[in-house]
Specification:
This protein is an alpha+beta fold. Helices cover about 25% and strands about 20% of the residues. It has a five-stranded antiparallel sheet with strand order 1-2-3-5-4, with helices on one face. The protein has a single domain, classed as HIT family, subunit A (2-Layer Sandwich). The site of adenosine monophosphate has 12 residues, from loops.
Length: about 110
């Protein structure tokens, strides 16, 4: 299933890309909910939701988390703090069915 994130990976539509390596790409969310709002996505595998990931993707999932912490440091929010969110399916609020991790920071997070 192709998504708008697939188009970003293939450079068919523009995005403000802040990081790319062999496994993931990270870019600014087009509708930011915080001063820093990045999306970290797998770039070689199209995994629609976390439900579709299995043990073969364990390393990739860990890499997404470690990339988030590095990007938090790069964007100066590691010490002040940040929030990571991965929405799954409709009631989780997922709208794009290409696995992604939200990195949010730069303001006080509320809720929970
Ligand atoms: P989710 O609701 O967890 O599926 O998150 C999808 C996110 O993708 C939302 O925060 C959108 O603002 C963001 N988004 C959708 N299209 C784009 C795009 N073309 N470039 C950057 N972010 C996007």
């Amino acid at each position: 299933m192709d998504t708008i994130f697939g188009k970003i990976i293939r450079r068919e539509i523009p995005a403000d890309i802040v990081h790319e390596d062999d496994h993931v790409i990270a870019f600014k969310d087009v509708n930011p909910q915080a001063p820093v709002h990045l999306l970290i996505i797998p770039k070689n595998e199209e995994i629609p939701t976390l439900n579709d990931a299995d043990e073969a993707q364990q390393g990739l999932l860990g890499h997404m988390l470690l990339t988030a912490s590095k990007l938090a440091a790069d964007h100066g929010i590691a010490e002040s703090g940040y929030r990571l969110i991965m929405n799954c399916n409709k009631e989780g609020g997922q709208t794009v069915y290409h696995l992604h991790l939200h990195l949010l920071g730069g303001r006080q997070m509320k809720g929970f």
